[in-house]
Amino acid sequence: MSLTGDRTRTSVPLSTRRLDAMKMLKAQFRPQRVALAKPVNVGLVAERAAAKFGRVPVYLDQPFAWDPDQRVELDYVEFAELVDQFAAVMKAAGVKRWDRVVIVKTPNYDIQALAWAAARIGAIPALLSARLDPDIINILLERLQAKFIVTDPAVAEYARLDAARLKYLNLTAIASIDGGIPVEDLWNSPIPAPSPLKDDEPMMITHTSSTTGVSKLADCCAKGVSFNAFMESIFPGFHTPDELFASAISHVHVRAAITQMASFSRGTPLLGIGKPDDETIMRLFPRYRPTILESHPNNFMGWERLIDDPSEPFSSFRLYFNSFDAMHPRTIQALLDASKRDHPIWLQCYGMTETQVVSVRPYTRGSFGRLKGRDSRSVGWEVPGIRARIADPETGERQADQSKPGMIQVKTPARALSFIGTPEKFAERRHGKWFDTGDWGRRGRFQQIEILDRIADRIEGVESCLWIEDVLLERITNAEEIVVVPDAKGRPVPVICMRDGKALDPEVWRKASAGITGLGEPLEVTPDDLQRTATVKARRYLLTEMIKNRDEGREAAVAPDVVLRDGA
After folding, report:
1. What residues have CB less than 8 Å from 364, skipping those under 6 apart?
2. Which residue(s) pair with 566 in the sheet?
3. What secondary structure letter does DSSP report for 503?
4. pLDDT above 60: residue 11
5. ∠ Cα 206 362 238 (to 5°)
6. Dihedral through CA 466, CA 472, CA 473, CA 474, nearest 10?
7. Within 10 Å of residue 267's Cβ, how many Cβ atoms?
8. Within 10 Å of residue 186's Cβ, how many Cβ atoms?
9. What pLDDT shows up at residue 448?
């Protein structure tokens, strides 16, 4: 691979990151970029970005697991070289075009680099979160019928992937585990020439979040991922070489591929975070002072407790960006206020694995007042090139009155190709060119999309459990998280996790629940009890089972057949 660029690592003083409006506008029209208007396979992006931009920094919270030098500061050139080396390792292990390569390892920013390496040689990376239940990991492995797996000793032990299990699954492990091929034995193998699959063929397999049961495996192609990466790369005021973009999401999801492609296409400096706990955030944010931050809603909620630290970890951000779920208003307000920038912005993004990005809504400190009412459920307007509609749940057809709650359906060029192992579930959600998101919502007064609930979590007679959560979080200020789910009788019951292990004060609950009819007795839980997914969402169906056990006077764990039910 022939790469150009200054050998001196790019270094942008933090003071210059305070861009004025004119500088930001000029940056948007800067011609230097990796073109994404036409589909590009992820396996080619790192090489092209390195050749175009040279040594743009990539800072890390932890070294790439396979990096022999164990660096926490890379650049585009070194990132591309590692992708090449990863591809060489896979090729030497016997990976061929069209082979599925499972990647399930300790969370790290290196996961997409491994996926890009597999795609570069025409294989199909299948990314699984190591935070899934061991039984769910094994169910998904059986559905994938892959030939190779990239893992590590800790995850292999957790998922019970010993030599006998690997043999049963007909999997060759590229890892230093029993029955596996150690990476060290294959390092410095000859670099293979790139041979990615076609733009409309499978490029990557990622899974849904498992909030309703066993995750689904979605096939996506270069055409769909490139579309969303291109739209993100041209979004006003987002990616420029003058920013430092901190990515603290689950890197096994297709969203990670989209945002890394968009960043590399514009030469954006990166701060990659694989373990977004309090210690990592307090170590990295005051040191690097990033200007853009993407994470999951529940991560943002947890970081509220860090806002008052004297180091002011969120003072440098001018743009927050959440994906995977709608944000609670309290958290948006708290983090906008924590920024010391004059005009910080919050972008709320609505999307999912099956459709990728659907809509975006911006908020400023000045516009935040609109969140105080039912507008808190708004997730904005469709990205250009994407359409959404509210459909009748009985017919699957467009409702005449779009302000009436119904199924949210989407028409997008980024839709998944199919579900691996459960194609019938994919077919059930297709309505011609429209795809059922699984969400229940409506159009607002300004034609914005409003999310009321997941269809699988709806409670008869309750307009929106999510809105109740917003109200309760506003009223119980020291609550870490509140999730409203049905009990055995179909009544809405709040599951409440308080900060610092404190108990919920009965008087606080009485005042907080005033005016909200029909609420059952709250269930207080610890953070571990929330049974979070890889994207830090509470697994609501398991919380319902916990409430049933409490109401029946049982302390038993949730039954395995409930945990392993197929997701909606």
Report:
1. 336, 343, 344, 345, 346
2. 214
3. P
4. no
5. 65
6. 110
7. 22
8. 16
9. 94
List C-alpha distances in Å: 414 to 128, 255, 372, 411: 20, 12, 33, 9
Please state, in angstroms and rounded to a whole number, the distance separating the CA atoms of residues 442 and 453.
11
pLDDT digits (tens, 9 = 90+) for 444-455: 999 999 999 989
Chain-centroid distance of CA 348 in Å reads: 13
d(CA 555, CA 25): 59
Which of 348, 272, 338 is CA-nearest to residue 306? 338
How many Cβ atoms from other residues are within 10 Å of residue 447's Cβ?
Answer: 10
Task: Please tell me the distance from the alpha carbon of residue 405 to that of residue 533, in angstroms, as a whole number.
Answer: 27
Strand order in the sheet with 492-498: 479-486, 492-498, 523-524
Closest of 531, 253, 183 to residue 416, by C-alpha: 253
Q: How far apart are CA 28 and CA 120, in angstroms?
A: 29
Q: Is 141 left (phi over 0), alpha (psi -120 to 50) or beta?
A: alpha
Provide the token pair at 477: 């200020």
Please tell me the distance from the alpha carbon of residue 511 to that of residue 549, in angstroms, as a whole number: 27
Rounded CA separation 130/324 (Å): 18
pLDDT at 330 over 90: no
Distance separating alpha carbons of residues 375 and 125, to the nearest angstrom:
39
Length of the chain: 568
Predicted confidence (pLDDT) per residue in 253-306, tens digit: 999 999 999 999 999 999 999 999 999 999 999 999 999 999 998 899 899 999
Contacts of 373 (CB under 8 A, 6+ apart): none
- Residue 547, both tokens: 């409430």
Q: In degrees rounded to 5, what are phi and psi of residue 279? A: -60, -45
Q: Find, among 64, 145, 146, 151, the residue nearest to 104 by Cα.
A: 151
Which of 408, 302, 398 has the alpha carbon at shortest distance from 351? 408
Q: Contact 103/111 with Cβ under 8 angstroms?
A: yes
CA–CA gap between residue 232 and residue 450 (Å, rounded): 22
Please state, in angstroms and rounded to a whole number, the distance separating the CA atoms of residues 91 and 123: 10
Bridge-partner residues for 493, per DSSP?
A: 485
Buried b (16+ CB within 10 A) or exposed e, 142-171: ebbebbbbbbbeebbebbebeeebbeebeb
* Number of alpha carbons in the 13 Å side-chain half-sphere of residue 206: 28
Q: What are phi and psi for residue 251, nearest 5 degrees?
A: -85, 5
Closest CA to 274 of 292, 244, 255, 250: 250
* CB 380, CB 359: distance < 8 Å: yes
* Beta pairing, strands 217-221 & 418-420: antiparallel
